[in-house]
Structure formats: C-alpha cells, structure tokens
Amino acid sequence: MASSGVLSYPGGTVLPYRFPVSQGGLNHGNIVVVQGWIPKNAKRFEINLICDDDNWAFHLNPRFAAGFFESDRIVRNTKIGNGWGPEEDSGAFPLKKDSAFDIVILVQDDCFRVAINGQHYCEYNHRVMKDNIREVMIDGDVALITATQPRDTVQALSEPAFNVSVPYTEQLPSGIQPGTMIFLAGKIKKDSQRFHINLQSADIGSPYADIALHFNPRFKPKKQVVRNNMNKGKWGDEETKAPGFPFKPDTPFTILILVEEDGFKVAVNHQHYLDFEHRMANLSTINTLYVEGDVMIAEVRTQY
User: Fold this and answer.
1) Are 29 and 123 contained in the same domain?
2) Are residues 299 and 206 in the same domain?
3) pLDDT digit string (tens) for 111-140?
4) Range of the domain at 197
5) CA distance 224 to 139
6) In the chain, what is the straight-line distance between the N-terminal and C-terminal CA atoms, in Å?
7) With contact defined as beta carbons under 8 Å apart, do 262 and 177 qualify?
8) Would you call 86 exposed, middle or buried from its count of C-beta atoms within 10 A (0-12, 13-18, 19+)?
9) CATH number (domain holding residue 215)
10) Are residues 173 and 295 in the same domain?
11) pLDDT tens-digit profile of 160-183?
12) Which of 176, 212, 251, 284 could form an S-S bond across to 180 if both were Cys, CB 3.0 to 4.6 Å?
C-alpha cells in the first residue's frame, strides 16, 4: 500500500506532506481536514494517521480504476507491526478527477467518522489506540490546498482568514503561478444581485490596471456567471457559457480556483464548474485577490 513517493506540483506543496499531532495523540472530537484538487491523471492518494513507521492507526486510500476489470474504491486499513490488516472498501465513490474535494476525519472514542464533500461517508472502528497517533501524512496524486487540525495542534499550509468583511482584499506577494490555489467559503445574501472575485494587479484604480480573472455570478436580470479579464484598464470579451448556475440566495457555497499553465480551473461546491484560458502572459503581476458584492465570506485560504 505504499504510495508513489515524493511528488511536486508547480508552486504547490511537496508530497508526501507530514505534520505532527500534539503530544497525547488525537482526542475525541478532534477533526482533521484535507482540501485540494485531484488531477485528471490521478491514480490514487492517501491520508494516514500514523503512530510510528510500523504502526498506522488509519489509512484512507482513494483509488481510481486502472483498467476494465477494476472499480473505483476507497480502501481503509490499519498497519500493525509493519503488517496490514483486512481492508474495508464498502461504499460509493464520491470523488472525481479534475475536481476539488474536501475530506473531514472526525475522531470519536470508538471510531473515525469520515465525511467527503460535506456528506457522511463511512465509519472506521479503531484497531489501535488513538492516543498513540503522532502525525498525519498525505501522499499520492493530489494537489493540496490545506491540511489542518483545529485548535492549532498542527501546522497549516496556509493561514486562513475567517469571517472577513466585504469588500475583501488579500495580497499575493509573489503573484500567481501554476499551482496556486485559492479557496473561498461563504454564503450568498438573501437579496443578492451579484458578486465578483478578481485576481488582479494591486493598482486596480489606475488606467493601466490588469485583471487576469474576473469571476462574476449575477442573479439579476439573468442568472449567469460572467468571466472576463482587464488589460491596461480595458475589458476583454465576456464569457457566459456554463453548465448551469450553481448559486442560490441565502445558501452556503464554496469556490476553489486553481491556476494551471494554460488557464484557470474553477470548482463550485466541490464540483468542477468551468475553465477560463489565460489572456495574460505575465501572471507574476497579479498580486491581489479582491472580493466584492452581495456575499458573506466565512473563510479564505490561499496556497502558492
């Protein structure tokens, strides 16, 4: 069950990624959260709760079918004395390639409870003492945006912002590049008409401002998500074609923006929604995230 080794994503996190658990192991009520993007050529990835090299309390291992006679499955197991126990793999497969995901592991006295993309997925009874868990390790074919345990008991990949006021501005000191990911969670206002997310240059008020991506959901007069760019203060051609309109007033949402070599990938509510091809050659000048409009933002995370 060993994974493929060290993988590096441009501008992203080097895998395997490991972070320590506070002394005393994991306790009832602790939550481990892993969020990221599954590449379109993914084969498998894993999240491990580790006691030591020979003893792993929990191995969560999504595997994509590699051939006609295989099926997608999520394997759960425990390693004791460097030997694997019986696998568990019942349940549906809620993950998709080329899409965002979030996995939440809730520690209970008798088991781990796993939720995927906001839905309960499975329970896994403890086979070793949860108090002996010393670190979390993530590896495989996945691009991470964040991996955290609450109450600051582990290190995070990024420092999130919570319950921010809108308009919201965040500086991206080195600009954006392939591998940059931006995650937002919030709620649409009840009487919302529109809001927008810009990846832009800091001097947006100048006549020479640049916006690499303008992502603009509009509720009125027509429900549509407008995408555009601005080059030296001039708007480009709007794009509006999209597979439906995934936003509703007075409803929570998540948005994940992934920067790739040829464009932006945008996921809404953990599902790939659309692509927007780059119209600018120099992304290093795009050093500001800006959010404005009829929306409440509960959380913002960035991964360079």
Assistant:
1) yes
2) yes
3) 999 989 878 899 999 999 999 999 999 999
4) 161-303
5) 37
6) 29
7) no
8) exposed
9) 2.60.120.200
10) yes
11) 677 889 999 999 888 998 878 898
12) 176
